[in-house]
Design a protein that fits this description.
Blueprint lengths: L2 E7 L5 E7 L4 E5 L13 H4 L4 E5 L16 H14 L5 E6 L1 H12 L4 E7 L10 H17 L4 H11 L9 H5 L5 E6 L6 H10 L3 E6 L6 H4 L1 H15 L1
Helix pairs in contact: 2-3, 4-5
Length: about 240
């Protein structure tokens, strides 16, 4: 599959890596915490038939760098805006998974005119939106990486990313109510995000629909890409 590999230089010297596939309206794919754009490998063939797909490695993830000691969704949203300016994009659709969905929500609040449609897969605005066991496992992971950071630079650089798991994303219910883009909130029935929290997000965004898919968990897009891609394309193409 033909693609372009590109980087965008941020004002703080960080370099954000992204790849472009296909032709059509712009669609950004935003991965989860600790991941990279490779998470969406099973979506590219399907989505690139209809869209100009931008697969971004968020700062400090994958092939992107991060010069900051701390990171935030606000900072990563600014990165996306810089990429859009570099690509001369006025507006785009955004599909986010997990922390990528959180980033998409923050971006939509900060740059409402740049967002055409939102697809939010397994996002959470507050840490308590995550089920208990996955939330506790995040603390275990953080403890392991914290210890490893004393001897390993990679682990030390990973700590600011992991800290995102334990913070509110900075959007209140009133903030969500100001997101006016047509939105699909989609989760697996067995997702690590509490169903009631996903429903709260869908209720709070005025023009949002909610889809819960039986038999699927947090890795829905990877485990059942055919169903996931179908749901996303049906939403985007019907909304066009």
């Amino acid at each position: 599959m033909k693609n372009e590999k590109k980087t965008a230089l941020m004002s703080d010297g960080s370099e954000i890596y992204y790849e472009k596939y296909g032709q059509g309206p712009a669609l950004f794919l935003l991965h989860g915490n600790g991941g990279s754009g490779k998470y969406f490998s099973k979506q590219l063939n399907s989505f690139s038939k209809h869209f100009n797909v931008y697969v971004v490695d968020s700062r400090g993830h994958g092939r992107s760098t991060n010069t900051q000691k701390e990171t935030s969704f606000h900072l990563m949203a600014e990165d996306l805006a810089t990429i859009m300016d570099q690509e001369k994009l006025v507006q785009a659709d955004f599909l986010g998974f997990s922390d990528g969905a959180n980033l998409a929500m923050v971006f939509a609040r900060l740059y409402p005119k740049k967002v055409d449609h939102l697809i939010l897969n397994a996002g959470n605005t507050i840490p308590s939106g995550v089920r208990l066991i996955p939330h506790l496992l995040s603390y275990v992971q953080y403890a392991i990486v914290w210890v490893g950071a004393f001897v390993d630079t990679g682990m030390r650089n990973f700590l600011p990313i992991l800290r995102l798991l334990f913070r509110d994303i900075g959007l209140s219910t009133d903030d969500l109510a100001k997101i006016d883009a047509p939105t699909l909130v989609i989760v697996g029935k067995h997702d690590s995000i509490k169903t009631k929290h996903s429903m709260y997000i869908a209720r709070s965004i005025p023009n949002a629909s909610f889809a819960i898919v039986p038999g699927q968990g947090h890795m829905f897009a990877r485990r059942n890409p055919k169903r996931f891609n179908q749901e996303v394309l049906q939403f985007l193409i019907n909304e066009e």
